[in-house]
Amino acid sequence: MAHFIVLLGPPGAGKGTQAKAISEALQIPHVSSGDIFREHLSKQTELGKLADGYIKCGQLVPDDVTIRMIGDRLKQPDCVNGALLDGFPRTLPQAEALDDFLAKMGASVNTVISLEVPAEVLVERLSGRWSCPTCGRVYHEKYNPPQQARICDNDGTPLIQRPDDQAETVRQRIEVYRSQTEPLIEYYRQKGVLVRVDGTQSIEAVKQEILTVLAGVQ
Ligand code: ADP
Ligand code: AMP
Ligand code: ZN
Prior knowledge:
By secondary structure, the chain is α/β, with parallel strands linked by helices. It has helices at 15-26, 33-42, 46-56, 63-74, 92-104, 119-127, 167-181, 183-190, 203-217, and strands spanning 3-8, 30-32, 82-86, 111-116, 129-131, 138-140, 194-198. It starts with a strand and ends with a helix.
């Protein structure tokens, strides 16, 4: 059976940090809408330039463009056994489009992990976040530092800070999450696939809790 897992949670909740272990445990690809937009931006594609206008000010990229992009990604052969969705869906129309898309494949969203973290913690997490532009690995200068300051453990690339992680944009992104994405918690609760996880625990404790949950629902 295919496993389509959604990681839901505000910016900075720890979705990207947890994604690697989940995707390895379930042998499904990690599909991050934010990473795909940033890849387009680094290649200066039309989609990348369009998305950048929204990302810079902490707004969502329009649904039609985002839905098409994720639909194309999920059609790739590596998603036949499922995918771990990180950052998608973020609106009700996106969630409905995902349901329609998966229904056509004879699949559905199996589990939604809602990583819950209060706003004041998110700002501190995002202001200390450093990521690797080569492999996408995510660090925190205090909570998850690389072995050598600002250098990726995995490939030695100098780490970068995301322009949208500055405090003012973060506040906007949290607000957008509250108004547009949080309603998805109720949407998935009603479908009986929601699991809430306390994302303020240590990275390791959150990982263990998620892996235990997923082992139980397989
Ligand atoms: P998201 O993908 O949900 O936006 P990230 O996984 O990028 O969030 O995490 C945001 C920042 O918080 C990163 O710097 C990461 O190292 C750090 N972080 C993630 N999970 C935890 C945790 N459980 N405790 C402390 N810091 C964390
Ligand atoms: P993330 O990497 O998930 O924090 O996403 C970074 C930015 O990309 C967001 O603030 C949005 O501007 C955009 N983005 C990512 N995923 C989506 C989505 N599902 N819908 C709309 N915009 C998105
Ligand atoms: Zn790296």
